[in-house]
Amino acid sequence: MEEKTQKKRAIDKKSLWLIIGGSLLGVAIIVGVVLAFLLGYNSNAPGQVNIVKLDKTYFSVNSNNNYRGYRFVFASNGEELVFESEDNVIILEDLEGLHAGTTYQIRACYLGETESANSDYSQAVSWTCYFRLETPVLSYDDSGLLSWNAVENADYYNLQIISGAQTFTLNVTETSYDLNNIDGGQLKIFLSARSNSQYLEQSLLTEEFAIDFYKSFKDFDSASINLNSNNLLTVTGSQLITEIDVQIDGVWYVDRPVSATNSDGVYTYYVSLVDFPLSEGSVVMVRPSNIDSYNSYSGSGIQAQFE
Length: 307
Fold this sequence. Notes:
It contains one helix and 27 strands. It has 307 residues and is mainly beta.
């Protein structure tokens, strides 16, 4: 009886060790699976790529210090462009190969030490590529010529010139503008590059470009008076002006505002003299007005001819 009891106890101990050994093996397997899971990182996909448009366009995902870097994939029409970075933010202007107007599906993953240790990819987000044109750089010489560098893909340039209370806004297809087309003064100038494509956005404005512009007015090219049409005085010249001085029979009438048209750099100015003491026998002289510390004139004026 005692021998049977001892055998039973031996069997019970063996069973207990088997149970303990099995449990430890199970725990080891679970730990191994967990470690493999943690080391693999593969289920820890980043959130959807964020796209922020400020002065530049930024693409970002939430950061994760457990990985060595980030991969962004731009897919379109079966082709993929891949950009890898140590930072969780990339900038559109630094990316090569993207095409304006193309719609991309963008996704991202975390980079592990090996390819198999990379995370899963985020859910794709759709984005249509827009590029911002580069901002031109302004320069100026004493002759009055304002110039700037040609910007790639720009179709024209929007020029804003502020002179006192006046603002001139011009669209220029060339890369220069002659300031002699406006009056001299303390000028503040801004410029942006523009495109006719809806996927190429205008550049940022240049910073304020401030100059003191001194202008020397030239004599007009021609002047004529039509007594049958409100005594209309018509003047032509090569410079843009806003006012003229008119002398009638030795008396000057200064700072007369004019309306103007421009055709291929030839300006035509109009002013009605219907309220002035004017007849066919009058001697009429015209000259540029607006003479001050920034605008000079050394001519004698030209005589208007009656039509």
